[in-house]
């Protein structure tokens, strides 16, 4: 059985707000958000832009990280995003 990658991600919405989620396919999930079929939060805030992601070997770890990021203040999320943009790398757990 092929092992799926799991991702926790942050998108920046057109109104400047941030949305955090998890998925097994970043490309597909961003397309779903931008087609208005994603989370209720992002539907009226399109388009969204992927600004950060981390990869995990299990869904559970990705969901735990999603919850942790959602608890962060905006400044903490922006620091994560800056590190991601500046280095072009992501954290893999």
Record keyword descriptors for this entry.
93 residues; 4-stranded mixed sheet; 43% helix
Q: Tell me the number of strands.
A: 4
Q: How would you spell out the order of helices and strands?
A: EEHHEHHE
> What does the largest sheet look like?
4 strands, mixed
Strand portion: 15-25%
Mean pLDDT equals 90
Give the fraction of residues assigned to helices.
Answer: 40-55%
Rg computed from alpha carbons, rounded to a whole number of angstroms: 13 Å
Report the principal-axis shape.
globular
Backbone structural class: alpha+beta
Number of helices: 4
Low-confidence stretches: none
Tell me the distance between the termini. Answer: 21 Å
Strand order of the largest sheet: 2-1-3-4
Characterize the structure shown.
This protein has 4 helices and 4 strands; from the N terminus they run E-E-H-H-E-H-H-E. It has 93 residues and is an alpha+beta fold. Strands 2-1-3-4 form a 4-stranded mixed sheet. The longest helix is centred in the last third of the chain and has 14 residues, at 74-87. 26% of the residues are buried. The model has no long low-confidence stretch (mean pLDDT 90).
